[in-house]
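A.,

Following up on our hallway conversation. Structure tokens first:
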């Protein structure tokens, strides 16, 4: 019997998502576990999988449409069933979606109709920034060759097209820049964090001369991927979590939840806003495997290819602004995690070693902590372990 496939709540608090792709054409059969549709939230791509055998009878939403949670996306049937054109179970009349998008476009009819899958001009996707740059330069983003995932047009593609044309992009006019869904979601989450989680902050510093020397030696060795300074920070944070497990916890109304694994989130700046993919078993991965996993998560975060599960879990986020010359800063805890570690640049400072003053590179770190599950002495022990690992970096290779 025909029934509706509705947009699920693919992540807690999600009210809408973009229908990114239809892997199946109308009339295609599917089995349990097959992907029926891929949808995109503010931060991740999510596959909607079939639970039973069936057939995709009709699509109700075009690729690229914003669909509210609970809105119908397609008509599914039992194996061997065909589309009769009758509404399944309830009316599928169109309902307006948010921001002018159609959550349910009218069901096409008539002998001249061409279904989306057979369209001669497939939809060309572009990032919001790429579309804006193209519009300001008088270009149609659909005419720009895309190098992103699935042919998606990204910022670099538009800038290259502008350069080929020999005309610089016009500077953006003064005015209001509408919030993206990612910016709204991030703002709401951080406001809730500051409102509900009582923050306290610890600041520490570490002499980083041996750490930088180790990184240079690792870079000189043959082999890929290259180990970055941030990879060493992630490993040090993970090992500090292993040494001080009382910080590897989360607050809940029923109690403090403890964890056996050490999963560290890494803050990544993207065109859509900040995302925090989670690196699993960061304390156990070999260093080059950690570097490879981090590079993969970062690349897919910037391309919008993360899965929802890759954004969940962990008790600590690491954010690093040292590459911009920032010396020191404090960050807001990323709920429902317990702490966030903010790292600045390694800069030469006068330090005292064995009674002598000399210049050495120093890294400053700020740990922001939710005081509900963690007391100050626990965070202080963690910071002491973290800075000691930076000053004795050979321990990071163990």
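Then the amino acids I'd put at each of the 398 positions:
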């Amino acid at each position: 019997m025909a029934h509706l496939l509705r947009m699920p709540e693919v992540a807690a608090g999600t009210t809408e998502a973009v229908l990114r792709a239809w892997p199946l054409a109308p009339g295609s059969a599917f089995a349990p576990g097959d992907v029926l549709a891929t949808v995109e939230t503010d931060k991740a791509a999510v596959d909607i999988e079939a639970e039973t055998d069936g057939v995709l009878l009709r699509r109700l939403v075009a690729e690229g449409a914003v669909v509210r949670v609970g809105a119908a996306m397609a008509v599914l049937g039992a194996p061997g069933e065909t589309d009769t054109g009758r509404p399944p179970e309830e009316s599928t009349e169109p309902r307006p979606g948010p921001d002018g998008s159609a959550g349910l476009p009218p069901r096409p009819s008539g002998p001249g109709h061409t279904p989306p899958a057979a369209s001669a001009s497939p939809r060309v996707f572009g990032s919001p920034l790429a579309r804006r740059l193209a519009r300001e330069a008088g270009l149609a983003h659909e005419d720009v060759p895309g190098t992103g995932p699935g042919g998606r047009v990204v910022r670099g593609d538009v800038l290259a097209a502008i350069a080929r044309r020999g005309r610089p992009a016009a500077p953006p006019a003064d005015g209001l820049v509408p919030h993206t869904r990612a910016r709204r979601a991030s703002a709401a989450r951080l406001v809730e964090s500051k409102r509900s989680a009582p923050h306290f902050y610890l600041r520490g510093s570490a002499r980083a001369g041996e750490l930088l020397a180790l990184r240079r030696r690792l870079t000189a060795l043959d082999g890929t991927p290259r180990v970055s300074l941030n990879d060493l920070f992630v490993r040090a944070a993970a090992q500090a979590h292993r040494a001080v497990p009382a910080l590897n916890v989360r607050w809940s109304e029923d109690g403090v939840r403890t964890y056996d694994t050490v999963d560290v989130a890494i803050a990544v700046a993207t065109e859509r806003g900040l995302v925090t993919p989670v690196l699993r078993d960061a304390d156990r991965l070999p260093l080059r495997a950690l570097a490879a996993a981090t590079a993969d998560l970062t690349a897919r975060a910037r391309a919008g290819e993360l899965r929802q599960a890759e954004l969940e879990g962990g008790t600590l986020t690491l954010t690093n602004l040292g590459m911009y010359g920032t010396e020191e800063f404090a960050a807001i805890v990323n709920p429902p995690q317990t702490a966030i570690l903010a790292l600045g640049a390694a800069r030469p400072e006068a330090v005292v070693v064995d009674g002598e003053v000399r210049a050495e590179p120093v890294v400053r770190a700020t740990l922001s902590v939710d005081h509900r599950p963690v007391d100050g002495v626990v965070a202080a022990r963690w910071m002491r372990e973290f800075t000691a690992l930076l000053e004795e970096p050979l321990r990071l290779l163990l």
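The two ends are 59 Å apart (CA to CA). Curious whether your intuition agrees with the design.

B.
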